[in-house]
Amino acid sequence: MLKKRASLSDLSFRELKIYYSENGYHIENGSFETNFNLKNKNNEYNLLAELLSDRNNIPLIFVKFQGKDKASISERSNYGYGCLLTSYIKIKNRLQAENICISDTTVRPRKDIYLFNYDCVNEAILNALVHNDWTITEPQISMFDDRLEILSHGGLPNGMTEKQFFDGISKPRNTTLMRIFLNMGLAEHTGHGIPTIIKEYGKDIFEIESNYIKCVIPFNKDVVNKVENKNVGKNVGKNVGKNVGKKIDLNKTEIKIIDLLIENPNYTYEELAENIGVTKRTIERAFKTLQEKKLIERIGSNRKGSWIILK
């Protein structure tokens, strides 16, 4: 990653700097690119720089399939083309919205059962992003009726055995990228992620080959059956806007705003108004409501910042 030249030469890192500033770090613009290893020996932006830049050509695809195979796609969402930290937050929010919950009210206290263990899925996503061999291609996240598949490329890092992998021995493939996720509090260098997943789902959910690692998270059958019995549809997950809207009673404009901000957190009021077909004033009122309900948050200044979906 540090050697491979970026596909773009004109890169900016406004979002990355905002994240560091918001977490109490002082950024020196003069040494920023050197400190983060963003250029190769030829003084060209490298692949790591492209991954962390505000705009890039790197996708991060989330696909929902109808049924239990890849015969039919029901939805395809792209959360890439921007700073990887922001892409991770978008994916994280999406999976939170997809994690359907049913409640058993026959016991006290009430027992909530979720479609999947979110902490385990989050650890799998983090591992896929941080340890993926980005020189090959980006990770892939696929959702079926009965499972979630998280595929990263490159297999195990050089010198790591499967036993070390399952024991939680940490050996980052991308050291600088890992350090950035650690600094932002998004990951921990404790090696507990894989053991956490294994404790919940066992080792068999991992498929480890020389060129990829696939983590297959099975869905809770009780939740799947409950959803199917209620005729929610073949796909157990709902899209983010609808899922949030049902829980928190949002109007159509507010739901559309959330959907659009997931695609692009830098939309202006004018652009959103044009996309949705309403006035700028309507968009401003909707944003005020969404902030009051703690569904969105502004990172950075009004002029240079961007929006983050909280729920």
Give a written overview of the molecule.
With 311 residues, the protein is α+β, with helices and mostly antiparallel strands. Helix content is 40%, strand content 15%. The strands form three sheets. The protein has a six-stranded mixed beta sheet with strand order 2-1-5-6-8-7, covered by helices on one side.
Query: Approximately how much helix is present in the residues?
Result: 25-40%
Major beta-sheet overview: 6 strands, mixed
Question: What is the number of beta strands?
Answer: 10
Main β-sheet, spatial strand arrangement: 2-1-5-6-8-7
- Rg value: 20 Å
Beta percentage is 15-25%
User: What form results from the Cα inertia axes?
Assistant: globular
Number of helices: 13
What is the chain-wise order of helices and strands? HHHEEHEEHEEHHHEEHHHHHEE
Instruction: Provide the residue-averaged pLDDT.
Output: 87
Secondary-structure-based class equals: alpha+beta
Low confidence ranges: 231-246
Distance between the termini: 33 Å
Question: Summarize this, please?
Answer:
With 311 residues, the protein is α+β, with helices and mostly antiparallel strands. The protein is built from 13 helices and 10 strands.
List key phrases describing it:
311 residues; alpha+beta; 6-stranded mixed sheet; 15% strand; globular
